[in-house]
Amino acid sequence: MSENARSGESGVRLRVMLCHDVPVMRGGLRSIINAERDMEVVAEADGITQAVDLIDEARPEVIVTDLCMDNGSGLDGMRSVKNVAPWLHILVLAGQGSGDLFPMAMRAGADGYLMRDAEPTEVVNAIRCVSKGHNYVNASIVTLLVSTYVCKTRRADLRDSYDLLSDRERETLCLAAAGHTNREIADILRLSERTIHNVRARLMEKLGFHDRLELLKYALRRGIISAGDM
Question: CATH number of the domain at 155-225, out of 3.40.47.10, 1.10.10.10, 1.20.1440.230, 3.40.190.10?
Fold first, then answer.
C-alpha cells in the first residue's frame, strides 16, 4: 500500500483513525477532529487488532492512539501498525508522565507524543504536523525530558545502570514499580509469566537490587514513575 497523499489535495480532508479502548475518549477526539475543515475521523478502533484490520478499508493517514491500549501493550501495538503500514503516521496521547516512556514510544514507531491534558487546538495541530512527516512533542514532555536529563547527569551511577537495561526490561521496571505483579505484567505485555519472572530477575541483577522496595525507591528517585502512578 502506498502512502495516502490526499491531505495535500485541495478540498480533501486529512483522514484520521482513532484507537482507544475508552469510548468517551474516542467521542471527545472525534468531536474535536471533525470540527476542523481540513480533517475527519474515518475509522475508530478499541484495540490494536481491530485497528490493523481497518487500515486497508479506511486508508487513514494518521492514527491517534492511547499508549496503554490493549491493557498496556501500546508499544507492541505501534510496532504491529508500522509493520502493516509503515507509511502511517502515529500520534500518541499518553497519560503517564514518565520521561522514559517517550523515547520507547518513538522507537516503537510514534511520530508525535502528547499528554492527555493537551488542549484541543494542540491535538489538531499535532495531527497536521505528523501528517506532513514531522515529529511533534508538546511542551510538557520537553520539560519532563529536560528534568529527566538533569536528574541523570546528577546521578551518573543511576544513569549508567539504567543504560544497561533493554526496552523490555525498562517496560517491566516501569510496570513493576507501579505495583503490578508478574502475572499482571505478563498479561499486559502478552508474554508468559515465566518470561516476565526472568526479565525481572535480570533487571534486578543489573541494577543491583534485591526487593521491590529498592526498585520502587529507584523508580521514584529517577523519575521513571511518580507517586500518582502507583
Answer: 1.10.10.10
Q: Which amino acid is at 100?
A: D
Residue 5 vs residue 34, higher pLDDT? 34
Per CATH, the homologous superfamily of domain 6-141 is: Response regulator (3.40.50.2300)
pLDDT above 70 covers a percentage of the chain that reads: 79
| Across 74-81, average pLDDT | 82
Would the CATH topology of 6-141 be identical to that of 155-225? no
What is the separation of C-alpha 44 from the centre of its chain, rounded to a whole number of angstroms? Answer: 18
* Long-range Cβ pairs for the range 94-98 (8 Å, 24+): 94/66, 94/67, 95/66, 95/67, 95/68, 96/67, 96/68, 96/225, 96/229, 97/140, 97/144, 97/226, 97/228, 97/229, 98/144, 98/174, 98/223, 98/224, 98/225, 98/226, 98/229
pLDDT score recorded for residue 218:
83
pTM recorded for the entire structure: 0.61
Domain ranges of the chain: 6-141, 155-225
Summary mean pLDDT of the chain: 81
* pLDDT over 60 (residue 208): yes
